[in-house]
Write a structure and sequence with these properties.
heterodimer, A: alpha+beta, 5-stranded mixed β-sheet, 11 strands, about 35% strand, B: mainly alpha, 14 helices, globular, disordered N terminus, disordered C terminus
């Protein structure tokens, strides 16, 4: 699939990724989205991201804040920066982070009850930051479940300020934090 | 396990709000006293190279008063978060406060009055506070179920603690007994180990948790934190031994490594902040940036001094950049944010939910404090460099105004705890 995107851009005479620096890539997905029938450019994004070393950066330009791409890159071990306006679209700088220990990168999946984040094994304050990052990444999130190995007491004020309610429960050695939109907010 | 049961488990790791708050409030009081003492000592500051008097008192009000109180409070609040193990006894943590605060008051008062016996008594009480702090911290580290990036820095700080408390006691005793062959050389080594070893390791270690937490940024990369720790330890050991024994072949490489470690620290912090979620940073990060600049300037000046460069009043300027520019700016930055952060965990808004830390912090005193701090740093620094006493005194006066504003801020934040202390809930729904 990713190769298809590359070939497509080869035919159109444009490279999907431009090396701005040895460990930095620029990917503008707007031309991909402009091609009718091509679908979302997730594969092209992952293709560009997977070759980057730790510390390598992917500068992504899209016509909207690309929440699914954020989540996919989070799962690949990238941290995304703030979304900045650029050329009528949005630019986000993703940086590949080093895994502190095995399993120390957030794992993301979707279940019937919404998105799940497994943050066990991450050193403080990464779990708190990852939860907020996931909430900001999704434009219309209704629920999020986070799996943690300590209760995120410092997170609660940030959640309240963002209009979320929470319930925490123990499950073995883990804490399960269930976040839902605050209907009264 | 239900929410409240889980919460009881989590809360069991944390001390009551009053314990860290007491340390933080004491730090703000010592902060005001430090600027006041500096103003009184203005005439002696530029030529200060050690010895009892108001300048030594001002120095220790800043280091033992502000920095240690902030470090103790932050450690008792943060270590359970980092290590996932309890500090243990709130009563012992409180005892550490009741040894530290009066001990610092006694020691600095005796320094100001050049009372050898008072300094010995003050050093003994303060030393007991540090010994208790070390014991509580070691017990917490021993109980930690897993390793964390901050723990090696805390261990390094504890080694440095022994390395500056014991010489500190010896220096105090030497004022009465006169047994040291070179009092000044040991005093310089004591300062290097305390500032760069103990406080430096805590700045790097606790900063690795607090700065990402405040800016909502990813954790600092372990692959850079490890060489930072190695560089810090090597630099402090080599430069302290080199200065103590006048061994330039050891001191110069030590400070060169220290300059590299300082540069790496700044790179790590700035790279972390570049990927933050919180777009607008508060006044505290202006102070963090001031502290970074002062650190680099201090170590560069230190290198010039050990290399024998003839810099008038270089030692006083080095001490000023290190203690006030780097460490005090960083500690105040942390206090600006950690006070409302701590408070937010212990109060509830009208809907029974924890308020955002920024809503508990009155902004005006913080703006005044930050502006006054920067002006005072520059004023006193220039006064020392140019040997202009009125500039030192004016800088100290501006610093005292900033410290008063900061005390106003701290009391306003702490009042929220008194007014709204209710147990935190595990459910925000």
């Amino acid at each position: 699939m990713a190769g298809g995107w590359t070939r497509l851009f080869g035919i159109r005479g444009r490279a999907p990724a431009v090396a701005a620096a040895p460990d930095e890539r620029l990917l503008d997905v707007r031309p991909i989205l402009a091609v009718e029938g091509c679908g979302p450019p997730l594969a092209a994004v992952l293709d560009a991201a997977r070759g980057l070393p730790v510390g390598g950066r992917l500068r992504l330009i899209a016509p909207f804040d690309p929440a699914p791409m954020r989540r996919a890159l989070l799962a690949e071990g990238f941290q995304g920066g703030p979304t900045e306006p650029r050329d009528g679209g949005f630019e986000i700088l993703f940086t590949r982070m080093e895994a502190a220990s095995p399993g120390a990168v957030a794992r993301v999946w979707r279940d019937d009850d919404g998105a799940h984040l497994d943050l066990r094994g991450l050193a403080a304050p990464a779990p708190m930051v990852e939860i907020l990052r996931a909430l900001e990444a999704d434009p219309q999130p209704e629920a999020l479940t986070a799996w943690l190995d300590r209760e995120p007491l410092h997170l609660y004020p940030e959640l309240a300020a963002r209009g979320w309610t929470w319930n925490v429960a123990g499950m073995g050695d883990s804490f399960v934090l269930r976040l839902t939109r605050d209907a009264s907010a | 396990m239900t929410g409240p049961a889980v919460l009881a488990n989590a809360k069991g790791r944390l001390l009551p709000a009053a314990t860290p708050l007491r340390f933080f409030l004491a730090a703000t009081v010592f902060h005001l006293a430090a600027w006041g003492a500096l103003g009184l000592a203005a005439g002696d500051v530029a030529d200060f190279v050690g010895g009892p008097g108001p300048t030594l008192a001002a120095l220790h009000l800043a280091t033992l008063g502000v920095l240690s109180c902030a470090a103790f409070g932050a450690a008792f609040q943060l270590l359970p978060v980092a290590t996932r193990a309890p500090i243990g006894s709130a009563a012992l943590a409180d005892l550490a406060f009741w040894l530290l605060a009066p001990g610092v008051a006694l020691l600095t008062g005796a320094m100001a009055l050049s009372s050898a016996d008072g300094m010995i008594a003050g050093a003994a009480v303060t030393g007991a506070a540090f010994a208790l702090f070390a014991g509580l911290t070691l017990r917490n580290l021993a109980r930690a179920p897993s390793a964390d990036a901050v723990m090696p820095f805390v261990r390094a700080a504890l080694v440095a603690l022994a390395g500056f408390v014991v010489p500190g006691l010896a220096l105090a005793l030497d004022g009465r007994l006169g047994f040291l062959a070179d009092h000044m050389a040991l005093a310089r080594a004591h300062m290097i180990v305390a500032a760069f070893g103990f406080f430096g390791a805590l700045v790097a270690g606790f900063g690795a948790i607090l700065l990402p937490m405040f800016a909502l940024a990813p954790n600092m990369p372990a692959r850079l934190m490890r060489p930072l720790l190695v560089g810090l330890v090597a630099a402090v050991a080599a430069s302290a031994v080199g200065v103590a024994f006048d061994a330039l072949p050891l001191a110069i490489p030590g400070v060169v490594v220290g300059l590299g470690a300082a540069g790496l620290y700044v790179v790590v912090v700035e790279r972390t902040l570049a990927t933050r979620l919180r777009r607008k940073l508060g006044e505290e990060f202006a102070l963090v940036r001031v502290s970074e600049a002062a650190l680099l300037l201090a170590v560069a000046l230190g290198l010039a001094l050990v290399a024998g460069a003839p810099i008038p009043r270089g030692e006083a300027l080095f001490g000023w950049l290190t203690v006030a520019g780097w460490l005090l700016s960083f500690a105040l930055a942390i206090l600006q944010r950690i006070l409302p952060f701590l408070t937010s965990m212990h109060v509830r808004d009208a809907r029974g939910r924890p308020p955002l830390a920024s809503t508990l912090a009155p902004r005006l005193p913080l703006v005044i404090h930050t502006a006054c701090h920067v002006v005072a740093l520059c004023g006193v620094g220039l006064g020392v460099a140019l040997d202009v006493v009125w500039l030192v005194r004016a800088g100290a006066l501006v610093g005292a105004c900033g410290a008063a504003a900061f005390l106003w801020f701290a009391i306003a934040v702490a009042a929220h705890v008194r007014a709204g202390a209710r147990p935190a809930k595990g459910s925000g729904s």
